[in-house]
Amino acid sequence: MAKRLYVITRDLHLYVSLFLSPFILLFAISVFFLLHGRSGREQAVQSAVISDLPAVDGLERLSGRDQVNGVRPLLDRLGVSGEINFIRRIPKDHRLVIAVMIPGRETTVDLNLPQRSATISQRNTGLADALNYLHKMPGPHNVNIRGNSFYMGAWRWLADASAYGVLFLTFSGVYLWTALRAERRVGIVLLSTGAISFFGLIYAISR
Amino acid sequence: MPSLAESTFRIWNRRGHYYLGLYFLFFLWLFAFTGLLLNHSWQFAEFWPNRKVSKFERKVEVPPADTDVDRARALMLRLGIDGEIDWTTARADSSVLEFRVNRPGRNISVTAYPEQSRAIVEQTDINTWGILRVLHTFTGKRVGDERNDRDWFLSTLWVISRDAVSIGIVIMVFGGLYMWYGLPAKRNLGAAALVLGSVACAMLVFGLRWM
Q1: Number of folded domains in chain B?
Q2: Does A58 lie in the same domain as A28?
Q3: A148 and A111 co-located in one domain
Q4: Which residue of A15, A39, B150, B153 lies most exposed, with the fewest beta carbons within 10 A?
């Protein structure tokens, strides 16, 4: 029974880690950009003005998810797809500025409602920015509108799977290590020094 | 028959996988768990509504110094506060020294009037859930923030620890891939899992831009 449990745990540890390894690498590598990198947004902006848009009533009065759902058909018509990051309303000009993100590309749609026109600016922000963006998403901000695109819904699921997967890999890894008698002593020393440095640092930084 | 060098590498790769995993175990738990906290607004982990704010004013000499950072550090020493200095606003009034001091669990806003030898300190303390969340995001310096530098020893140490964890993870992932490749019986199913994960990840990182 114990042997069977060991074999099942070992296989699960292997296959779960293989599936998650690209995501784990994404999170690990993006940490360097987040901690030390500069924002990679220097690339040239491409702009286009589109006019004769269909009239849409009441968009300005909407808020939150309703507003996101309201502007989505307009964005589809403009050929802009992605996660709506936020919508900023400029009441005196009756304009809506919509930031639409996909990893590595930021599109800003400046919607002029009375003139029924839109200025679309797009910039490629690069690989580092794509990794940073995915690392931080879905995140704690704009919760009521987050996940308004298909890819963000999928990423939300995969980011959760990565976190739960890492927890599973650590627990199963500890279990697999305990079965290796020859490695037990060194392992305990490393586990203890890791715990001391972890709790010591947290105590010092947050006391 | 593997060579001696290959056998030695295989043994130490396996050991490195265990050793790194065990050393960084608590860090991995912290970052995985707080990642979930940040992505879900779980009610039990709320911290901002429960924050404690206190404010006090103190007579204190603001010592002269060459730079604003040195001046702020000297003032912090006299006020008995410590943390990462965050310059939030441009100084419109040169007679006022205004800055924030951040550390996981505590944000302090300092407004000092050197000519009047007084300082107003507003301190916000958050609970353990808040501290856990901040530990995940605390970098001492935001990406693209040219105004601030990492100037607190402990935030630098925290950043170095996070770098070390990330390097450890990368080594563990590649070491794990090498160990898997040494198991011919697991190669096909393992390759399927790896390809599935890689395609999904590549779609998000690169693919969406090209679609």
Answers
A1: 2
A2: no
A3: no
A4: B153
| Separate counts of helices (H) and strands (E) for chain A | 5, 5
Contact B205 A15 (CB under 8 A): no
Q: Is residue B137 part of a domain?
A: no
Which residues in chain A show pLDDT less than 50?
Answer: none
pLDDT in tens, B39-85: 998 888 888 898 999 999 988 888 777 788 888 888 898 898 999 99
CB contact under 8 A, A14 and B180: yes
Query: Under DSSP, is residue A88 helix (H, G, I), strand (E, B) or coil?
Result: strand
Residue A167 lies in domain: 1-38+131-181
Q: Is residue A198 part of a domain?
A: no
**Number of Cβ atoms within 10 Å of the Cβ of A203:** 9
Rounded Cα gap, residues B122 and B107, in angstroms = 8
- Write the single-letter amino acid at A162: S
Instruction: Please check whether residues A119 and A59 belong to one and the same domain.
Output: yes
> Amino acid identity, residue B140?
G
Contact at 8 Å (CB) between B102 and B121?
no
Q: What is the pLDDT of residues B155-197, one digit of tens each?
A: 999 999 999 999 999 999 999 999 999 999 999 999 999 999 9
pTM, rounded to two decimals: 0.90
Is the Cβ pair A21, B15 closer than 8 Å? no
* Chain A residues near residue B189 by CB distance under 8 angstroms: 15
The pLDDT of residue A192? 97
Q: What is the largest CA-CA distance in chain A?
A: 76
Q: Quick check: B147 and B87 in contact, CB under 8 A?
A: yes
Order of strands, edge to edge, in the sheet holding B106-113?
Answer: B52-59, B118-125, B106-113, B97-103, B84-86
Same domain for B74 and B13: no
Residues B36 and B89 in one domain: no
**What is the radius of gyration, based on Cα positions, of chain A?**
24
Q: Show the domain range for B87.
A: 52-125
Terminal CA-to-CA distance of chain A, rounded, Å? 46
Please name the residue of chain B whose CA is at the shortest distance from the CA of residue A27.
B166
pLDDT, tens digit, 9 for 90 and up, residues B3-38: 888 899 999 999 999 999 999 999 999 999 999 999
Listed in sequence order, the residues at least 6 apart from B4 whose beta carbon sits closer than 8 Å to its beta carbon are: none
Give the orientation angle of helix A2-36 with respect to helix B153-181, to 10 degrees.
130
